[in-house]
Amino acid sequence: MKKSTAMLIGTVTYIVFFLYLLLVIKVLLFKFGPIEFKALFSYMSSSLSSPELIRERLLTRGNLIPFHEIRNYLANLIIGGNAISNVNFIGNIIAFLPFGFLLPFLQQQKNRSFVKVTFLSFLFSLCLETTQLLASIGTFDVDDLLLNTAGGMLGYVGYKLCRLFFTHRPQKSIAVQERTV
């Protein structure tokens, strides 16, 4: 591949990843309303001035018990129950698939590990969940952390499968190539 083509692909990948991050932040933090960072920081400042309210919100509305909501999501999926619950369960995974898929393209070859992508998926999810808690625009849910991280992990598996497919395709034999000409 030519160096200019590789640079173009790299630039496009950075742009796509940046747009993906903006979309995730928009959907998870601002839902489907306008992006208002000034309001977000105002909410966070207000919350940080009253740490007891953060604790209360976390304990009364948040979920700190791993797999508590995941069990509910799975039960709903099996019985075909609450559609919103199903969308939340599957959406948390799907939302982070691009993160795990695109991130390795942006990293140097030696840094493209499953463990690093998993850790960064967890860290990005933790930042989003913590922002929701501090800005009082959602609830902190440890199961969201698990599902988002799982989505990042599955995205990385997709990345590896694509790399395997596109870098190790068998070459047609010369005889087969000559017959097709």
From TrEMBL:
Listed Pfam families: VanZ
Protein's UniProt name: VanZ-like domain-containing protein
TM segment ranges: 7-30, 89-106, 118-139, 145-162
PANTHER family: INTEGRAL MEMBRANE PROTEIN, MEMBRANE PROTEIN-RELATED
Key words of the record: Membrane, Transmembrane, Transmembrane helix
InterPro entries: Teicoplanin_resist-assoc, VanZ-like
Segments forming domain VanZ-like: 17-162
